[in-house]
UniProtKB/TrEMBL annotation:
InterPro entries: YdcZ. The chain crosses the membrane at residues 49-75, 96-116, 122-143, 150-167. It comes from Nocardia albiluteola. This is DMT family transporter. Keywords: Membrane, Transmembrane, Transmembrane helix. The keyword rRNA processing does not apply. Pfam families: DMT_YdcZ. Coiled coil: none annotated.
C-alpha cells in the first residue's frame, strides 16, 4: 500500500477492488441499521418496556460478539492480547463507545416508530455527519485530520436537505 501526504494527514491508498468491497460492507452495515430498527420496534411492541428492550439488545449483541471472538480464536493463528502497557496507554474514555451506542439504541427504540425508519435513519445520518466532520477537522480520538472544506460542507447540507425531504414526504 502506498501513502499520499496532505498537509494535515497521510492516508493509505487502497486498490479500487478493496475500496469497492469496503463500500459494499459499509452499505450492508447501513442497510442492517434499518433491520435493527425493525427488530427494536418489534421488541418494544412485544415487551412494552424500552429499558428491557435495550438490555435484551445488548445481551444478544454481547453474545454474538463473544461467539465471533471464540470462533476467531479457534481458527486464527494470530492470538495477540493486549499487554498491561497497551491497557495503560489506552485513553480512559475509549471503552465508553458502547454507551454512545446504547444512547443510539434507546433513541431508535423510542422514536423510530413515531417518525418512520427512513426519516429516523436520515436524521441519524445527518447528526453523524455533522459530528464526524468536526471530528475529522480537529483530528480527535485517533483519527487523521481532514480539514473542513466547501465540498464537505456542501455534502453535509445535502444530507440535511435529504433528511428534510425524507421527513416531509
Amino acid at each position: 500500500m502506498t501513502t499520499t501526504s496532505a498537509p494535515d494527514t497521510a492516508r493509505r491508498v487502497l486498490p479500487r477492488s478493496v475500496i469497492a468491497l469496503v463500500f459494499l460492507f459499509m452499505l450492508i452495515g447501513g442497510a442492517l441499521r434499518s433491520v435493527e430498527a425493525g427488530c427494536q420496534n418489534s421488541l418494544k411492541l412485544a415487551l412494552h418496556n424500552v429499558w428491557l428492550c435495550g438490555v435484551i439488545s445488548y445481551a444478544v449483541a454481547l453474545t454474538g460478539v463473544g461467539i465471533i471472538l471464540a470462533v476467531s480464536l479457534v481458527f486464527s493463528s494470530q492470538r495477540r492480547w493486549p499487554t498491561r502497557a497497551d491497557l495503560a496507554a489506552m485513553p480512559k474514555w475509549a471503552p465508553f463507545g458502547g454507551l454512545t451506542g446504547g444512547a443510539a439504541i434507546f433513541a431508535m427504540i423510542t422514536v423510530a416508530s413515531s417518525v418512520g425508519v427512513s426519516t429516523f435513519n436520515a436524521v441519524i445520518i445527518a447528526g453523524q455527519m455533522f459530528l464526524a466532520t468536526a471530528m475529522d477537522h480537529f483530528g480527535v480520538m485517533g483519527f487523521p485530520r481532514r480539514r473542513v472544506n466547501a465540498q464537505r460542507l456542501a455534502a453535509c447540507a445535502m444530507i440535511v436537505v435529504g433528511s428534510y425531504l425524507m421527513a416531509k414526504y
